[in-house]
Amino acid sequence: MVNDRRVVITGIGVTAPGGIGTKAFWELLTAGRTATRTITLFDASGFRSRIGAECDFDPVAEGLSPQEIRRMDRAAQFGVVCAREALADSGLEEGAVPPERIGVSIGSAVGCTMGLEQEYVVLSDGGRRWLVDPAYAVRHLYGYMVPSTMACEVAWAAGAEGPVSLISTGCTAGLDAVGNGCQLIWTGRADVVIAGATDAPLSPITAACFDAIKATSPNNDDPAHASRPFDADRDGFVLGEGAAVFVLEEREAARRRGAHIYAEIVGFAGRSNAYHMTGLKPDGREMAEAIRQAMHLGRVDAADIDYINAHGSGTKQNDRHETAAFKRALGRRAYEVPVSSIKSMIGHSLGAIGAIEVAACALAIEHQVVPPTANLHTRDPECDLDYVPLTAREHPIDSVLSVGSGFGGFQTAMVIVRDRAA
Amino acid sequence: MSRHAVITGIGVTAPNGLGTEAYWAATLEGRSGIGPISRFDPAGYPVRVAGEVSDFTAAEHVPSRLIPQTDNWTHLGLTAAAWALDDAGADPAAFPEYEMAVVTASSSGGTEFGQREIERLWTKGPSWVGAYQSIAWFYAATTGQISIRHGMRGSCGVVCAEQAGALDAVGQARQLIRTGTRLVVTGGADASLCPYGLTAQYSSGRLSQGDDPGRAYLPFDVGAAGYVPGEGGAMLVVENAADAHARAAPVIYGEIAGYAATFDPRPGSGREPGLRRAMELALADAGLAAGGVDVVFADAAGVPELDLQEATAIRAVFGPDGVPVTAPKTMTGRLYAGGAALDLAGALLAIRDGVIPPTAGVTELAPGCDLDLVRGAAREARVGTAMVVARGYGGFNAAIVVTKTD
């Protein structure tokens, strides 16, 4: 019976600022260390915000072949490295599942912008030619133009021949891609889905975008403490990069093969504010609606939620918006449950971060530890919940809520629970 | 009670017709919208013809406030969405806000807008990049703007699967209908015919370098030598059948009866591409045998190797000469994320009018591509069921089956 199909996470791969791989990621989070620093990937000296959360990523050391490195943008490289880590972690052998029953759902907000920008600079000769010179086009330029190639790369890495797509709902793309992956299994269209998200937006054009709307932190003198979600002194988000990819499996099949199950994804819902492409109303109404719907689908009550992984970008409006949403959706429970933002440590990697946060949720359940909100010294009086300042906390965790909010007005919520028998 | 996804509205922005009826009339008459590129001087480029939506003036169709905030691709999408809602006679204010959603496909985002801003960045500096770059270029811009314009607060989506994406978007829309959403605006559009966009497309190795607009894009023909790029697309209004009937929707074009997506084996595997499987799965999903399909709107890549793969798959599923096949995109060029959405609109209009639009330009079928390709004039036929096939660069395959509803 299709409706009884359940989805579990059996493999995790993470490439995040502060360390490559799931283990390094979790160590950083539980230590409360920040990975934000002055941007080194390009010369940011002319920019309003010169801070980034960069991955110390060496594609050769991560096992990518020379041809893979040549044809893939940095974001695609992150995605493939994470997919391979997740597959190895899951213990799922190639051939164990028919390729046509394996799907791929990868999220990304800005696709291969880094490659697109680098090639543009050459073709336009430093911006001087509107009529760019086609003689300088590299063979892989088209692969940068269409972000769907990142999903292709993951599909090739996994040997997937089922439904494959790239989900690009901006900053909720990570949660939406994982949710879409669950949907493929819930509805019986796939038995295994390689799902996650990747973004590598630390290039001049993307940094300039956020400069222009003053969304990123200008705290250039203190980059390690620039990402300050829920803190009264917060002044914008810190642009990050990275990826997280999961092996999602139909639960019965995962159990039959004796897979390690990190957690089950039980509910996923999206709502849109239909208000403004970047602005948020302070009432948190649509995000609250997404949360309620995700809990309803997951058959989880507010009282069951043990931890909220916040969007917590560190912009003035976001942190108030989602604080209001938590209160609206969870009532009194919002004041009792720990809430934290890992963006305080690894920045905001746009479409990728939602998937990286799902990894944090699965690991929080695995280790029964809530990661902290770093840099939270003086709480914004309008943000009056328990944001787990500075230090990780041991805490019994059965059910976790993770949320995302992004340009376009999209609000997404997901409920992830500890695997429970029957 | 089971929920069925039916299409109640169509909006078209195509190179050979602005508006559904203009597009359909041109298509049935075999009138092409492909011509020399006019937006910039293409003399220095290997590709010089395209399907431009040349009679489109944003100021006539898009709220003036939104024009500078959005790329041409979003202008076309917003316009098609508004027309589709109008066609459906659906006033968004009359629907519960969380039960309306938008799911669109994009292959490459706001390329021309992006080229202008990135030029400013590299010639003048970061402070010259405008505030709207952050919301105009990214792939979610069109979905977000449609959602905001019409007050649709449900579960919105954005799918990228190059030229197959629109069918995946419609598949996602059907899933939303099945799980309780009442109305979804879905489809796709693209408009990347600026110098950088065209150059990037050319680097795929799949574009035609022919200068004769009538002979540059000849899918399944012995003269096939790549495709002509285009811009535009289509948006559809999808509703739950019972709700559409209850509100006495003016027209129900058809039901989304079957949908499937597959992915090709790794390059170099030597194994059969996933296209046949996508078609078979879509038929099975619709509960139909191949014989129940009255027309196939082909992907029609215009690249000999891809044409042969598709013709082989169609013949394997339907038998030799088993089904009429057509490719009206020969009159628009390939619209990327908009192409399959436009084909789906065409398939629904074929059902409505009992006529199969022709494939333009093709004179002699290539060996192995001997299909019952509708050529020359439109063919009158009873069309109760149509299949739309789309493929995307890198290995995406998708198929949708739409059926007439009574």
TrEMBL record, chain A:
This is Act minimal PKS ketosynthase (KS/KS alpha). Belongs to the thiolase-like superfamily. Beta-ketoacyl-ACP synthases family. GO terms for molecular function: 3-oxoacyl-[acyl-carrier-protein] synthase activity. Keywords: Acyltransferase, Transferase. PROSITE patterns: KS3_1, KS3_2. GO terms for cellular component: cytosol. It comes from the Bacteria. Residues 4-418 form the Ketosynthase family 3 (KS3) domain. The lineage of its organism: Bacteria, Bacillati, Actinomycetota, Actinomycetes, Streptosporangiales. It comes from Streptosporangium canum. Pfam families: ketoacyl-synt, Ketoacyl-synt_C. GO terms for biological process: fatty acid elongation.
Automatic annotation (TrEMBL), chain B:
Residues 2-404 form the Ketosynthase family 3 (KS3) domain. One of its GO terms (biological process) is fatty acid biosynthetic process. GO terms for molecular function: 3-oxoacyl-[acyl-carrier-protein] synthase activity. Pfam families: ketoacyl-synt, Ketoacyl-synt_C. SUPFAM superfamilies: Thiolase-like. The keyword Cytoplasm does not apply. Keywords: Acyltransferase, Transferase. InterPro entries: Beta-ketoacyl_synthase, Ketoacyl_synth_C, Ketoacyl_synth_N, PKS_Beta-ketoAc_synthase_dom, Thiolase-like. CDD domains: CLF. This is Act minimal PKS chain-length factor (CLF/KS beta). It comes from Streptosporangium canum. The lineage of its organism: Bacteria, Bacillati, Actinomycetota, Actinomycetes, Streptosporangiales.
